[in-house]
């Protein structure tokens, strides 16, 4: 794998990993913070009886009001401003008119483009009271993401991230989805490198200061296998077990990782009491 100064690289996937400077970090902080503010506001929106397209409209209007663009809108034929993945939906759930019901868990994934920079983050939202096993799944998924992020250091590898996540999750007797991964981002939505959420320490791509990517593990209560429904987007667990996901966008620094999408209100994971 080779690396390139992001300011000198063309605005497309080149097979090289872009290394960003201080101005890019500033851009990502602003985009990431906007996404985090939006996810904070969703805590009050997600409740029994509301359809997921209402969440989608809220995010769309929030983006417009803040001079941002939802990156998923018209992305590869996708027509919504968010992904809303309920219960056994692993990711890429399409917002629709079906109302959320008490006991559901839903992931809302928001990507906003602000001044050309992509902020990408998702959190889990409980709908009213949820079962204990769903609470546990959400807790383990959040901790898995954070363990992955804590494993990031310059000179380390992408495999360190995957290993930290996989070893923790499997010890909790849950499974890590293989079919989707984190990704480089910045001026592009999906760029090099891929961040696989399983792996072995020391394997994969070497991490360098200035790299931007997401860590976004999808964790299942049952087996890791998924299938994509005939709509071409919705990914579900093959065994219909519950699935959860959290996502942060991060930048590699001289010391470790800077998280661009931290909740300003401390609404990191449920229960969301501020
Ligand atoms: N936000 C998702 C991610 O974390 C990507 C969604 S692409 C879409 O990478 F087209 F499904 F919206
Ligand atoms: Co992402
Ligand atoms: Co996302």
Counting DSSP H or I runs of 4 or more residues, the number of helices is 4
User: Fraction of residues in helices?
Assistant: 25-40%
Rounded to the nearest angstrom, the distance between the terminal CA atoms is 43 Å
Large-scale geometry:
globular
Structural class computed from helices and strand pairing: alpha+beta
User: What share of the residues does DSSP label as strand, in percent?
Assistant: 25-35%
One letter per element, helices H and strands E, the order comes to: EEHHEEEEEHHEEEEEEEEEE
Estimate nothing, just give the exact number of structural domains. Answer: 1
Supply the CATH class. Alpha Beta
What's the story with the biggest beta sheet? 4 strands, antiparallel
Oligomer: single chain
> How many strand units?
17
CATH architectural category = Alpha-Beta Complex
Describe this structure in words.
The chain is of the alpha+beta class. The strands form six sheets. Strands 3, 4, 6 and 7 form a four-stranded antiparallel beta sheet that branches. A three-stranded antiparallel beta sheet has the order 5-14-13, with no helix packed on it. A three-stranded antiparallel beta sheet has the order 8-12-15, covered by helices on one side. It contains four helices and 17 strands. A hairpin with a 6-residue loop joins strand 13 and strand 14. The model has no long low-confidence stretch (mean pLDDT 98). It has helices at residues 22-45, 52-65, 132-150, 158-171; strands at residues 2-5, 16-19, 69-70, 82-86, 89-91, 105-114, 117-126, 175-176, 182-184, 191-195, 212-215, 218-220, 226-228, 235-237, 243-245, 248-252, 257-259. Helix 3 runs antiparallel to helix 4 (158-171). The chain has one domain (18-259): Creatine Amidinohydrolase, CATH 3.90.230.10. Helices cover 26% and strands 26% of the residues. Bound molecules: 2-amino-4-trifluoromethylsulfanyl-butyric acid (MF3) and cobalt (II) ion (CO) (2 copies).
């Amino acid at each position: 794998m080779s690396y390139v100064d992001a300011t000198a690289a063309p605005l497309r996937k080149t097979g090289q990993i872009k290394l960003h400077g201080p101005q890019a970090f500033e851009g990502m902080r602003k985009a990431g913070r906007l996404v985090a503010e939006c996810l904070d506001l969703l805590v009050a929106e997600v409740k029994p009886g509301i359809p997921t397209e209402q969440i989608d409209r809220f995010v769309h209007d929030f983006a417009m009001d803040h001079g941002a663009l939802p990156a998923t809108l018209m992305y590869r034929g996708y027509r919504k401003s968010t992904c809303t993945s309920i219960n056994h939906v692993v990711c890429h759930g399409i917002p629709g008119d079906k109302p959320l019901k008490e006991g559901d868990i839903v992931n809302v994934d928001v990507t906003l483009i602000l001044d050309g920079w992509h902020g990408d983050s998702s959190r889990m939202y409980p709908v009213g009271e949820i079962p204990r096993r769903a609470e546990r799944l959400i807790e383990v998924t959040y901790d898995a993401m954070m363990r992955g992020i804590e494993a990031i250091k310059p000179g380390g590898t992408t495999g360190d991230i995957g290993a930290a996540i996989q070893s923790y999750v499997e010890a909790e007797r849950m499974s890590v989805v293989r079919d989707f991964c984190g990704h480089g981002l910045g001026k592009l939505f999906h760029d090099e490198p891929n961040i696989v959420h399983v792996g072995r320490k020391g394997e994969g791509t070497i991490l360098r200061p200035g790299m931007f990517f997401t860590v976004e593990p999808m964790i299942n209560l049952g087996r890791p296998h998924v299938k994509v429904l005939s709509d071409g987007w919705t990914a579900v667990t093959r065994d219909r077990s519950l699935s959860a996901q959290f996502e942060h966008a991060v930048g590699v620094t001289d010391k470790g990782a800077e998280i661009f999408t931290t909740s300003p209100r401390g609404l990191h994971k449920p229960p969301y009491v501020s």
